[in-house]
Model the fold of this input.
Amino acid sequence: MTEQRPPPRFVVGQAVRVVLNARNTTAHCGTVRDVVWHFKQERYHYYLLENGKKVSKRYSDEDLEPE
Done:
């Protein structure tokens, strides 16, 4: 049985900005370097590349906005 998951909101290479809030206190602007489906949470997580460096924190849909 194949699971149907929605398409990701952001794609690899897309320019994004981190939405600052209580969970995200550091501003980052960069590109999506990886999109990973989290099976237990049933949602995508995104990893960023900023100025050629990997941002170690993972972000979800509501943490990012298009640049």
